[in-house]
Amino acid sequence: MKSTIDARYSALINQAARQLGAELAVALDTQVVKELSRHWAEDAAQSGDARSLAAYLVAWRQRAITNAAVSIVAAFGALGVATYLPPVPRLVVSLASTAFYDLAARQRKSAKEILPVASGLAKVQAAKSAQSLALLWEKRQQPALIPPQSEEVKSALKFFDWQQFETNPDKYAHLAIVGGSGDGKSYLTRQLGGKVFSGKTIVCAPHWEPGDWEGFPVYSKGRDFGTAEDEPVDFEDIIEGVAGKVSAACLIKSAYEEMDRRYKLFELGIKDYPMINLVLDELLATLSEVPELITPLKKLWREARKVRIRIVSLIQDDSAEALKIKGESLVRKNLRYVRLGEFATSYVKQIDDAQAQEWLASQKYPIMVGKELAVLP
Length: 377
What we know:
This protein has helices at about 1-25, 30-45, 50-80, 85-145, 150-155, 165, 185-195, 235-240, 250-265, 285-290, 295-305, 330-335, 340-345, 355-360, and strands spanning about 175-180, 200-205, 220, 275-280, 310-315, 335-340, 365-370, 370-375. The chain starts with a helix and ends with a strand. Strand 7 and strand 8 form a beta hairpin. The chain folds into two domains: about 1-145, no CATH class; about 150-375, Rossmann fold, CATH 3.40.50. Helix content is about 60%, strand content about 10%. Helix 1 runs antiparallel to helix 2 (about 30-45), helix 1 packs antiparallel against helix 4 and helix 3 packs antiparallel against helix 4. The chain is built from 14 helices and eight strands. The longest helix is centred in the first third of the chain and has 59 residues, at about 85-145. It has about 375 residues and is of the alpha/beta class. Strands 3-2-4-5-1-6-7-8 form an eight-stranded mixed beta sheet, sandwiched between helices.
């Protein structure tokens, strides 16, 4: 199966490289990058290894940066020499200095334009290959998810129905998805956003990288946590993706203002506003950078469910202290914990059910929703 996946992956990536190379040859202004993209498309067709081309792209950008630095030094050096020369040689050396400076500018521009090239490749790769790879991956992982020897045990167990997040929103108002690195917090959330949740799903992802959260509006990239002084923006602009740069602080404050606005409509009997699922990835990192955000967050956890706003928090600690909600019984009542990996296998020990513990221990990706066992939706 691995060889099949590798072959499929290479074919998809090479197709993406050829397409992107052709697009870049038309779109980019800098001549040297045009040449690079043209050769890129040709090499992808011949070599069958787009990943080596990506490595070449990184090396080429580094050379451009180095050349720009050398050219700047040469330009200033030539100017320094020109001051000691007679008029005619001075003019010649000055022209050479200008040429060096122009070369440095072109190299800097080319190096800068390499960045969207790399970003574009990553996006095309994801778009072209993710779906096919996911199908292959699921087929390979299915035996590990539900081992044949566990079918008899499984039939005697009760599993959480994910649709309860839609059918019973009072009981399952908000989620705290807890897991370590690699436990599948993002994958599970994407599944919920695509298969279970109604309405619009918006993601706050300070640690975003190309390929993450495909298909969802993403804000706060590049560790844009913001500050306590950040002002909210119109939430409709956030939903429509026209709000521009939005920090994590701005996004949470904007959600709070939207809740307040909806309650004013709620008072008038107006309830036709859309369902919003606000995913807060790396929430503990955000609260560490901007601790003041816990105040509007607690209010959202307590009150937002009635006006169709759901908060989905992705965290790596399931203690009440981590979210600063120790002693906050109303907040805890509205927050449903979804535990993954070791958090799930540890928590299941609180249940006096040997079969449940045995079955969960047999899973490659253990999941518990509250005190109930669960499988991926």
